[in-house]
Structure to design on (574 residues):
């Protein structure tokens, strides 16, 4: 029964969700709504599991004084600190503290906001360094990639329009913004659609295997 | 310089220490930030599609705006959120603010602050509503597809959405009752999920904004399921330019009235807080949840008061194009240098 029940739940949930798309009438729509709401409730419990796992993993590192245990200590202090402030309603006069109130709000604007923006901004440096090393015209494909990158880089600034504004109307398609637009809406779009369809087919295949009980890795080991 | 020394020097340049590249990028970003300047932007088809759609929708149309991003992407996405909000308010559309990200409720409060201080004629509960955050990722979109009240029984302050005072909710039962869906997003759930689970299911026009890195991934949905997208800070700058070209007078009027309006709103909130405090004092009962929302809003407006109110206020993205332009130029120059050194070294090795 340890395996049968989860397989049955998976089968019924998956089947109902699929049927609800093709037969959008009672009782399938009602069941689809129930399952969606139940999914949201279970997702909240998953947060608790995730939090517990975080403490266990980092706690182990601190206990064993493994490499980088100092960062684990910072992670645990941050996690426990925010949890304490939220649960004890620190800085809020009332029963219902939301994420945008009290000390939670102060920490959000004064710590999370600047730190998160900084981390994302660091990407610019790594992109520049990677571009310098990666964009070399070693062969035809690399040269096309290089030319495309330079056109897009210029098009994402006002220079792109200014540099080729002088071109006559007959050659308007060679203006950098037009070229960039064509690159994004033709070859890029075609490639992305192909990848997306491939991924979608893979998802359908894996989902069917899970629903039918062929793929059971989600059940974990015995 | 003999050939050996030249080759040595070129090889070093070809494998330049990345810290030197970091330094050049840092200088390229810092200098235009300290000495800001913006140039006229030339809007593309994508931005113009969104602008024209909002411009031509009948006044009072229902627009659902989902702000699905976190502080990491706020420098890139906040300017486009502000520009879109300003445009929606100028055209007097009904706005339904919400988010699927747990880090975004404070961002929605910023959006509310913009509406209150720049468009005082837009009344909460009549012209716009803050539905707040609900967990469940794209499950929320699935749920509001058929019944919005299944997910949202109250607004952000805890007031019942079925109360008659919520004129903005009249006739709104599900996502299909919206006239336009906008999602400004950075990841999952975001614009892609709004297209897949929302707009495409109810056949409503969907558009939005995204970070520059995520925008190419959304192009497959153009133009059928998504009629336009603002890509990164460039997209935001293009939209701001369109607003300046189309509504300069209105924007200049905001500059004059905003400081006065901020003071008025703060006074209004102080009065509301004092009313609730008196209720608690006299009867022992008061809407504490509502009070805490007002206090948070008041704090935000006090922070807003400290920000300068000038032309740069509605040109945030245009100003940020300066550092982006210089940084891109630096990257292009490095790429060119790298290729020149690569070719010279290869030629020297061939001629050996």
């Amino acid at each position: 029964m340890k395996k049968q029940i989860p397989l049955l739940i998976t089968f019924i949930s998956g089947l109902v969700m699929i049927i609800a798309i093709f037969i959008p009438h009672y009782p399938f729509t009602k069941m689809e709504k129930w399952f969606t709401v139940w999914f949201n409730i279970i997702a909240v419990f998953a947060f608790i599991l995730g939090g517990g796992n975080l403490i266990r993993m980092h706690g182990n590192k601190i206990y064993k004084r493994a490499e980088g245990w100092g960062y684990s200590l910072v992670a645990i202090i941050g996690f426990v600190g925010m949890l304490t402030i939220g649960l004890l309603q620190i800085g809020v006069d009332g029963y219902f503290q939301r994420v945008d109130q009290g000390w939670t709000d102060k920490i959000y604007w004064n710590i999370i906001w600047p730190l998160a923006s900084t981390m994302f901004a660091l990407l610019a440096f790594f992109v520049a360094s990677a571009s310098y090393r990666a964009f070399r015209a070693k062969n035809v494909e690399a040269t096309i990639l290089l030319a495309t990158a330079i056109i897009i880089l210029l098009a994402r600034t006002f220079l792109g329009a200014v540099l080729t504004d002088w071109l006559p109307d007959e050659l308007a398609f060679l203006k950098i913004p037009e070229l960039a637009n064509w690159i994004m809406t033709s070859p890029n779009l075609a490639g992305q659609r192909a990848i997306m369809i491939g991924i979608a087919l893979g998802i359908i295949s894996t989902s069917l295997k899970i629903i039918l009980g062929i793929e059971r890795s989600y059940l974990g080991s015995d | 310089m003999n050939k050996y020394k030249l080759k040595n020097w070129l090889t070093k340049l070809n494998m330049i220490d990345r810290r030197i590249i970091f330094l050049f990028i840092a200088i390229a970003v810092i200098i235009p930030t300290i000495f800001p300047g913006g140039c006229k932007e030339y809007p593309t088809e994508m931005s113009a599609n969104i602008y024209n759609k909002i411009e031509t929708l009948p006044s009072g149309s229902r627009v659902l705006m989902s702000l699905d991003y976190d502080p990491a992407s706020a420098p890139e996405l906040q300017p486009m959120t502000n520009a879109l909000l300003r445009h929606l308010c100028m055209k007097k559309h009904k706005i339904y603010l919400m988010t699927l990200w747990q880090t975004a409720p404070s961002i929605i409060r910023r959006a509310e602050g913009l509406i209150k201080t720049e468009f005082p004629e837009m009344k909460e509960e009549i012209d716009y509503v803050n539905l707040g955050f609900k967990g469940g990722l794209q499950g929320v979109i699935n749920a509001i597809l058929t019944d919005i009240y299944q997910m949202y029984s109250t607004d952000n302050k805890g007031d019942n959405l079925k109360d008659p005072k919520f004129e903005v909710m009249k006739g709104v039962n599900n996502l299909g009752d919206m006239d336009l869906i906008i999602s400004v997003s950075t990841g999952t759930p975001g614009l892609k999920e709004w297209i897949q689970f929302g707009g495409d299911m109810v056949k409503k026009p969907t558009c939005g904004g995204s970070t520059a890195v995520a925008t190419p991934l959304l192009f497959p949905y153009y133009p059928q399921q998504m009629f336009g997208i603002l890509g990164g800070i460039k997209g935001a700058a293009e939209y701001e330019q369109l607003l300046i070209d189309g509504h300069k007078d209105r924007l200049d009027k905001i500059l004059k009235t905003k400081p006065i309006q901020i003071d008025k709103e703060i006074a209004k909130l102080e009065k509301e807080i004092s009313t609730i405090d008196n209720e608690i004092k006299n009867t022992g009962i008061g809407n504490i949840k509502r009070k805490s929302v007002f206090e948070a809003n008041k704090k935000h407006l006090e922070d807003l008061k400290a920000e300068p109110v000038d032309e740069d206020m509605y040109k945030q993205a245009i100003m940020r194009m300066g550092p982006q332009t210089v940084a891109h130029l630096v990257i292009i120059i490095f790429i060119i240098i790298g290729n020149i050194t690569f070719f010279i070294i290869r030629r020297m090795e061939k001629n050996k």
Summary: Chain A has a mean pLDDT of 86.
